[in-house]
Amino acid sequence: MTTAHYDAIVIGAGFAGITAARELGSQGKRTLVLEAKDRLGGRAYTETLAGHHVELGGAWVHWTQPHVWTEITRYGLGIVPDEKALFANFPGADGQMKTYPGEEVLTRQQELLERLFTGWEEYFERPHDPWFRPEKLAEVDKLSLRDRILELELSPEDENLLWGWASGESGGRSARGALTMPGHWWAMGGLQLIGFDAIFNLRLEVGMQKLVELMAADVRNSELRLDTAVKAVHDDGAAVTVTTASGEVFTASTAVVTVPVNVWKSIEFSPALPEPYTRASTETIGVPNAVKLALHIRGDFEGAFYAQGEEGAAFIGLFPHRVLPDGTQLVVGFCVEDWVDVNDPKQVEEAVRHLEPRAEVLDYKFHDWGRDEFSEGGWAYRQPGQLTTMREIQRPQGRLAFASGDMANGWSGCVDGAIESGIVAARHIAGLLDRH
Ligand SMILES: Cc1cc2nc3c(=O)[nH]c(=O)nc-3n(C[C@H](O)[C@H](O)[C@H](O)COP(=O)(O)OP(=O)(O)OC[C@H]3O[C@@H](n4cnc5c(N)ncnc54)[C@H](O)[C@@H]3O)c2cc1C
To answer: Which of 31, 200, 246, 427 could crosslink 222 through cysteines, CB 3.0-4.6 Å?
Structure first.
């Protein structure tokens, strides 16, 4: 049993946790960071495939994302764009996969996205304060992406350009995803396509996990324990006691809980968390069945491509990443339901070939975020109604503050939002410590 006393215990060492620890350390507060995995980064997870960095978690960043861009500037990191798609495969009007010239179909898809968000400036007048116009938010927060696409009364071919996108981002079904999720990103990106589209293209040369490691190296007054899963958190009003899965006990004046929202329900909090917290965790914000794959492929075609399946496809999309000098390429795939066993290379190849029949899979790496007990889901993608109540789950409880990229005010669902959320939680905790 360990009894050392800290100012704050930070639970989780993803971007939110490391940011909170760095903020608190810079103000002279002593922290203990407890991380369940054997590495930093959480949903930022960089691997190597065919000799190149590939991201199995968060990948894309952009200068319109103020918090992550500050870190990129601070550490002087380079960025690389993904390969531009020369052709794109989508389901055509009859539902069968069809190849289009890349530029033509992607422009058409973008025009449809513009229609989806026409007039959207009314809803998020101040994007970093999504509740600024509550009466307007109430009008749209109840809608799913499916509701809005059906409202547009598009031709079957145009609808098919959107179903794969909408269902993929939503985590399997376009009826699951709240329209306000991409709508808020649209507002954050300057209420225009260019700002929205830009967040799906640039990655860090050194890999996303390296950024969190650089930030962690700058955390002062702190101890870090990896392989230390937290099982219980008790706030007795005077101090916080944290018990780990192996039975170790740590105490501190406060704690910052930065595990994903979906994981809250798996930790015993006493007193119990208020109902909105348990509801959000049980309903899920992070998409429940997210598998991300990095694939090394070759095929009898020139250049990079983009492919998007129909709603319900085994792989919801293939995104171009890098064409290698030998003509083979790295692509990224997402699988959002249990329709394919990603441990089985034959099933993976079949799913890839549904989207691009000429592709041959040489090798691949993946991470199943849904089955990962320390994330219980992938990227955050709220469901209808969840934005209206999100503010309730941001509130500190007693000596606990909560931080997560899943519930940021700004770029929720992104690394940027995780950093924002870590800063806000640390500010609250530092204030609490200073007052006592
Ligand atoms: C497949 C995928 C693709 C994505 N793509 C992008 C993208 O392109 N761009 C972008 O900006 N964002 C993207 N995201 C989202 C982004 O990765 C997350 O928003 C961000 O990394 C979340 O950071 P966090 O610190 O809030 O949570 P996490 O990174 O999940 O950190 C939480 C930490 O808590 C730890 N933990 C959990 N339970 C316990 C416990 N019981 N005890 C101790 N520790 C525990 C976890 O191991 C983890 O390290 C993506 C996410 C996924 C999964």
So the answer is: 31
Per CATH, the architecture of 5-43+207-286+380-435 is what?
Answer: 3-Layer(bba) Sandwich (3.50)
Q: Measuring CA to CA, how many Å separate 21 from each of 40, 140, 262?
A: 13, 36, 22
| Cα 411 from Cα 416, distance rounded (Å) | 6
Residues in the chain: 436
Q: 196 alpha carbon to ligand 1 midpoint, in Å?
A: 21
Q: How confident is the model at residue 3 (pLDDT cuts 50, 70, 90)?
A: low
**pLDDT for 196-241, tens place per residue?**
888 999 999 999 999 999 999 999 999 999 999 999 999 999 999 9
Q: Angle at CA 62, nearest 5°, toward 139 and 384?
A: 20
Q: Is the CB of 290 under 6 A from ligand 1?
A: yes
Cα(418) to ligand 1 centroid in Å equals 8
Q: Is the CB of 259 under 6 A from ligand 1?
A: yes
Residue 77 Cα to ligand 1 middle (Å)? 21
- As for the ipTM of the complex, it is 0.99
Tell me the CA–centroid distance for residue 379 and ligand 1, in Å: 7
Residue nearest to atom 11 of ligand 1 (CA): 414
Distance, CA of 61 to CA of 68 (rounded, Å): 7
* pTM, two decimal places: 0.97
From residue 14, how far is each of 64, 290, 300, 308, 337 by CA, in Å? Answer: 21, 18, 40, 30, 25
41-64 pLDDT, tens digit per residue, is: 999 999 999 999 999 999 999 999
Specify the pLDDT at position 401.
98
